Amino acid sequence: MKGKIQRRINRPMPGKLLIIWDFDTAIGQINSTMPYNFRYDPIYEEIENVDYILNRAHIEDIRMTFACVGFAGESGVFPFNIPDIISKISIRGHEIASHSWKHEWFPYLNEKQIYRSLERSKQTLESCLGPGEKVSGFVPPHSRPMSWLKKYSVSLGDRGLYPFHKGSDIGYIIKELGKLNYRWCRVLPKYKPVWEKIKGNQSDDSVFFPVWETHDNIVCVPSHYNGFDKAAIDFVKEAVKRNETAVISGHPAGLSRDKEESREYFDRFIDKAVQLRDVEGLEILTVQEHILKNLSLTEKKTEN
Asked: Percent helix, strand and coil across the chain, each rounded to 5?
């Protein structure tokens, strides 16, 4: 015990881990997989997986961030409307963020639709929280747009062209978030200029920790990895080694799939994260906790 305390004292800025869940719920799964693939079983499994995550987090004393679609917070019909589950997540001490109103493809939305999705999802999710609690974060559904015109970064995969589709520019989304008093937005760790994309990825660092930036008063949270396999664990280990912040994302529905988000990988990941916390001083925080406690030390403010 004495050695553990000493090690923490010698690490003035310990590594940090932020876990963000994309909790798509029923409407989000429909809009993610196309209606032709709709089945009820994955929806019920996702809800069961949320309970599993919450129980594991309670046992290990871990807090995480759950990005939820606003539609799920409305009163209505189970499993499409689950305000009680969103409330339970918040009561357990986890952060609730917006994952849009119904998991829309933002590059296709017009200006009014973008604003209403951000506004109504925030309002509805906040109605599920306790008095005075706010939704401060936004996680773009489908991780789109992947274009950021201010950085000369363009992704043809967005399938929308600015200015005809303003939702195809993450810079525009960020400005709208600022109007609605959001505080942070998850973004890609790298928005490369077009000419760098053409050159290729020869010089890329596989474990890359960018300086966090603020645009239009919105903190841009770089998502480093999606999943909980060995690559995710290596990212967290490197964060501890460099005193950096690792942002790992996942989907509750993914725990039921035999891929990098499976329950087996998740359990191993949490075991390792807890070990790194207890031995190396790793801090495991919600995004909002990290912003309030630590970001002023590392944040790069950028004027638009």
From this structure: 50, 15, 35
**Residue 211, domain CATH:** 3.20.20.370
261-290 pLDDT, tens digit per residue, is 999 999 999 999 999 999 999 999 999 999
Find the length of the chain: 304
The predicted structure's pLDDT at residue 201? 58
Give the tokens for residue 1. 């015990």
Residue 34: give the domain boundaries: 2-301
Is pLDDT at 1 greater than 70 in this prediction? no
The number of distinct structural domains making up the chain is: 1
Question: Both ends of the chain: CA-CA distance in Å?
Answer: 48
What pTM was estimated for this model as a whole? 0.91
Distance of CA 173 to the CA centre of its chain: 16
Three-state secondary structure call for residue 168: helix
Q: How far is CA 14 from each of CA 79, 164, 236, rounded to the nearest angstrom?
A: 40, 45, 12
